[in-house]
Fold this protein.
Amino acid sequence: LASGCERESSQMNILESLSIALQALGSNKLRSSLTVLGIVIGVAAVISLMSIGRGSQASVTSAVQAVGSNLLFVRSGAQTVAGVRGQQGSVQTLTLDDAEALADPITASAVAKVAPELTTGARIVAQGQNVSTRVVGVTPDYVDVRSLSLAEGSFITDQNMQARSAVIVLGATVAQNLFGDSSPIDQTIRVSNRPFRVIGVLAPKGGSFMGSQDDMVLAPLTTVRFRLFSQRTAQGAINVQLISVQVTDESQLDAAKEQITSILRERHNISGDDDFTVTSQQDILATFAQITGVLTVFLGSVAGISLVVGGIGIMNIMLVSVTERIREIGIRKAVGARRRDILMQFLIEATTLSLLGGALGVGAGWGLAKLFATQQINGQQIQTQVSLDVVAMALAVSVMTGLFFGIYPAYRAGRLDPIEALRHD
């Protein structure tokens, strides 16, 4: 019975302290509102900036996965000058013959399809319009390996490859910039002052980790090599910069990687370091996830500074409140209030401020995230993602901020001597 009475008394004390806290905050509405505003800004900044970081991470993941989860990418090696290793692809070590060897079902049983690429830049002119974009030399399997689809027309064929035909497939953005809403099929365009006939237009794909799939044009690899790109190996083979390999099944990625490495090492007579690299979608995804993860933490940390500033504001108002209410504290102690009662009252006031600011900040942060999602940077839509764990974290941090910065003012109020407090004017 005594325990039950003690619990009930404790609950009443908390409710009474909460009532007193609300009255005290209500008596200084402007000051309390400005203090709450500091927490609102801090929480809103944390949620909105972290939503941008999470959105970027989700966007990158989606872009990588859209290319296909069963792909391997073979790139040329890096050049080493004076002991300094350059970036991948600085040495042209891959050839079209390498790609054809990787497509051999006998030696590379885990490989389904292979799509070599040779990329160069060019200015394209049509109907008085001109654009500068990437010209990618590809083979017929490219459309399947990269999971592309056609909006109209047809894709490059084996006959186009053999004949080195001057045909081209436009990306969605390039087609729109050159021809607007009219169909470009069978129209003649000039690529680096050479005439090409448009045979197809790609369906919009969007950006990926390898650049925009819409802002490029595709032509037969042999055509690009002999009409637009003049570099060859010392042996006269056709260079390629990237070989995309589609694996028969996602579970065969490791087996395919071993087969590719073995074939290329044998073809290139390698006994030491490889002059090529083989990466998978998982490798690329892990790298981008690490980068975007660091970016998200950085944005959250920067926004967290404003929460600290808001916490300092809470401490400031609570210290002022203690100074203004010294006589009230003395009276409460004189009539039996214990130190912990006074301590609890001021902690509740600080927590109420931070909790109210946190709740309003969640709404403001959610609104800012939605606003950011309607904006674009360099033509790219900003992606945002508000998740419950971020909201919960922001609320928890705001409450903890209130408690942390409210402890000293509450402790100071609890230590006041009742006699000295009653004498205070």
In short: The chain has 13 helices and 16 strands. Residues 78 and 90 are 5 Å apart (CA to CA).
